[in-house]
């Protein structure tokens, strides 16, 4: 469902007026830390909501403060009546979509927290192997990386074979449209 991102912003504004940075932090919190939008995705969507008459803004202490309009509230009520899922479920899906599917929220959060460490260790292993290419440690590191590559290929191949969408193959989403 394209266009969900702007309505996620509108839902947040339904709880009260916010600055762009507050919206970024609120969305991060609502998705359990699984998704943090960029300013480049927030502001164009806020402008679009203003053009649609669903949100407005005012200058407060030199900062632009966004708020939902009556028309925006009406639009959210209408969407909620026609929505097949609870609002909390939509937020979970928005965050999980970033990671490629309907996985358990705890598993995804764990992956998101360990991913930077894993990438850092891979980079460190590559440096070690490059600095001492003939060492026993370099040979072991190459073996570990090779085994990891094969296991990842097998997992991704089995997901594809079972009909699951692996990591948004063919996804044409841009940063200004981060959530479907």
From TrEMBL:
Basic and acidic residues: bias regions: 165-180
Domain of life: Bacteria
InterPro entries documented for this protein: Tscrpt_reg_PadR_N, WH-like_DNA-bd_sf, WH_DNA-bd_sf
Region ranges (Disordered): 155-180
Domain Transcription regulator PadR N-terminal: 9-78
Membrane-spanning segments: none
Full protein name: PadR family transcriptional regulator
């Amino acid at each position: 469902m394209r266009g969900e991102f702007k309505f996620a912003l509108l839902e947040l504004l339904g709880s009260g007026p916010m600055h762009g940075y507050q919206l970024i932090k609120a969305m991060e919190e609502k998705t359990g830390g699984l998704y943090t939008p960029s300013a480049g995705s927030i502001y164009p969507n806020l402008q679009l909501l203003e053009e649609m008459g669903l949100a407005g803004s005012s200058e407060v202490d030199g900062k632009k403060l966004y708020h939902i309009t009556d028309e925006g509230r009406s639009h959210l009520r209408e969407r909620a009546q026609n929505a097949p899922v609870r609002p909390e479920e939509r937020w979970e899906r928005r965050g999980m979509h970033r990671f490629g599917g309907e996985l358990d929220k705890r598993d995804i959060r764990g992956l998101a927290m360990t991913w930077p460490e894993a990438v850092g260790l891979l980079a460190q292993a590559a440096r070690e192997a490059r600095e001492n290419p003939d060492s026993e440690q370099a040979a072991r590191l190459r073996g570990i990386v090779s085994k990891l590559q094969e296991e990842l290929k097998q997992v991704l191949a089995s997901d594809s074979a079972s009909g699951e969408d692996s990591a948004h193959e063919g996804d044409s989403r841009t940063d200004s449209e981060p959530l479907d």
